[in-house]
Design a protein that fits this description.
Elements lengths: L1 E7 L2 E7 L9 H8 L9 E7 L19 E7 L9 H13 L7 E6 L2 E7 L5 E4 L4 E9 L4 E8 L3 E6 L14 E2 L9 E9 L2 E8 L3 E3 L3 H11 L6 E7 L2 E8 L2 E6 L2 E7 L4
The structure holds the ligand N[C@@H](CCC[C@H](N)C(=O)O)C(=O)O.
The site of ligand LBFN2T5F has 17 residues, from helix 2 and helix 3.
Pathway: Amino-acid biosynthesis; L-lysine biosynthesis via DAP pathway; DL-2,6-diaminopimelate from LL-2,6-diaminopimelate: step 1/1
Keywords: Amino-acid biosynthesis, Cytoplasm, Isomerase, Lysine biosynthesis
GO molecular function: diaminopimelate epimerase activity
Length: about 270
């Protein structure tokens, strides 16, 4: 089968074009594709399918996705399904343009969190309108060597965004965070962040279903939302190990901008 490989600030994905929904993508196949030694390697898989050929029902809250021609069927590297992936949408949009599946600099992408508006900026960066970001109170997580406290946030998928006092490079994210299972019955992505200059955050993330990654778009948005005083507008530059994205929070909603590239295409015998 044909595949492509792409990344957004080094959050990397195996892209599988399946316009007519003919592929039966199992958890095992996803794990193998994402395996960095036995497979192609990636933090997740983006199946590129026409929304009408998706082959699964959407939650009522996600039905806006039906107006988008193309649907991002996102899977984590452990094979699990997630509702939303911010960098994934940006890379997915880049692939749609690259493959000639869409034209123009504004279009929508369907996700399990509804339709997301994509804009291709004049400098080539890709911006995605993230929709509703819901602040859900406080919680904490046990990391390898410390307990961190933060804000529970839904960006379509679950997050715990925790401000830490020192450099984020000093935090041990080597083991999966232990979460309050009542607050997070489906697990969560855990971000640690620190404001290093006015308007600039440094962040690292341990992603549900993928482990520590070099960037996470929804996590970047969660950290920026947690760092913004309630009711205020803000623009944050968020530095992650794989690069930098910008988050804008204003009356038009929450937008995530940054680079997204397709770096390879080929044929795989793993699917
Ligand atoms: N890397 C993504 C988030 C992918 C999904 C996440 N691991 C989850 O399970 O919720 C992003 O860029 O947002």
């Amino acid at each position: 089968m044909r595949f492509a490989k792409g990344h957004g600030t080094e959050n990397d994905f195996v892209i599988l074009p399946d316009p007519d929904g003919e592929l039966d993508l199992t958890e095992e196949t996803v794990r193998l594709l994402c395996d960095r030694r036995a497979g192609i390697g990636g933090d997740g898989v983006l199946r590129v399918v026409r929304t009408r050929a998706l082959g699964e029902g959407l939650a009522p809250s996600a039905r806006t996705a039906e107006r988008a021609e193309w649907f991002m069927d996102y899977r984590n590297s452990d094979g699990s399904v997630a509702e939303m992936c911010g960098n994934g949408v940006r890379v997915f949009a880049r692939y749609l343009l690259h493959a000639g599946y869409v034209e123009g600099d504004r279009f929508e992408v369907g996700t399990r969190d509804g339709a997301k508006q994509v804009t291709v900026e004049t400098d080539g960066d890709i911006t995605v309108g993230m929709g509703l970001v819901e602040m859900q109170g406080s919680s904490s997580a046990e990391l390898a060597r410390q307990v961190v406290h933060g804000t529970q946030i839904s960006v379509g998928n679950p997050h715990l965004a925790c401000e830490v006092p020192g450099p984020v490079s000093e935090v041990d994210l080597s083991v999966p965070p232990v979460l309050d299972t009542e607050a997070f019955p489906d697990g969560a992505n855990v971000e640690i962040y620190n404001e290093v200059a006015p308007g600039v955050l440094e962040m690292r993330v341990h992603e549900r279903g993928s482990g520590e990654t070099r960037s996470c778009g929804t996590g970047i948005v969660a950290a920026a939302a947690a760092a913004t005083p309630p009711g205020e507008n803000a623009v944050w530059r968020v530095r992650v190990p794989g690069g930098e994205c910008t988050v804008t929070l204003d009356a038009d909603g929450v937008r995530l901008s940054g680079p997204a590239v397709v770096v390879a295409e080929g044929e795989t015998s793993l699917v």
